[in-house]
Amino acid sequence: MTKIEAIVREEVYQDLLDALKSVDIHGITVSQVMGCGTQKGYTRVVRGSKVDINMLPKIKFEIVVSSDAFADEVVRIIRKTAVTGQPGDGKIFVYDLKDVIRIRTNEHGVDAIN
Ligand SMILES: Nc1ncnc2c1ncn2[C@@H]1O[C@H](COP(=O)(O)OP(=O)(O)OP(=O)(O)O)[C@@H](O)[C@H]1O
Ligand SMILES: [Mg+2]
User: Fold this and answer.
1) Architecture, CATH, for domain 2-113
2) How many CA atoms lie within 13 A of 47 on its CB side?
3) 35 in ligand 1 pocket by Cβ < 6 Å?
4) Where are the bilayer-spanning segments (predicted)?
């Protein structure tokens, strides 16, 4: 099982949600988050003074899938939908997931996802 966590621009939220719902995912978590990447935010001039804007609003998607092949597919969809080529497009983190438990039934692992 694989967990994919993607931090993307706010503007791609709806398109990415639609793209992910069009494939066979069995669950998704979305959060509004704040973050910075390698640029550590940026500096903007506000009323003549430089202001550091370190933490920018982003959207985090979390998706757990049962197979490596499907994880690759989800990563491809995220990349295709979220890329502009400009700094700040975001990152995709891919984790090996130890276990999943469906609370209602106490199913574990792949059974708890599908
Ligand atoms: N190393 C990291 N650890 C945790 N979160 C990160 C990391 N890098 C990026 N993020 C998250 O992803 C968001 C977008 O990052 P961003 O796209 O700016 O990455 P980057 O490495 O600076 O790439 P780019 O040069 O394209 O901007 C950040 O606001 C932050 O929430
Ligand atoms: Mg950046």
Assistant:
1) 2-Layer Sandwich (3.30)
2) 0
3) yes
4) none
Facing residues of 2 across strands?
65, 96
pLDDT digits (tens, 9 = 90+) for 13-34: 999 999 999 998 989 999 999 9
Ligand 1 nearest atom to the CA of residue 39, by list position: 22
Q: What is the pLDDT of residues 58-73, one digit of tens each?
A: 999 999 999 999 999 9
Query: Ligand 1 centroid vs 23 CA: distance in angstroms?
Result: 26
Structure-token match 């469906």, residue found: 102
Ligand 2 centroid to Cα of residue 12, in Å, is 16
- Burial (0-12, 13-18, 19+ Cβ within 10 Å), 61: buried
Nearest 5°: CA angle at 84, between 78 and 88?
85
Atom of ligand 1 nearest to the CA of 86: 26
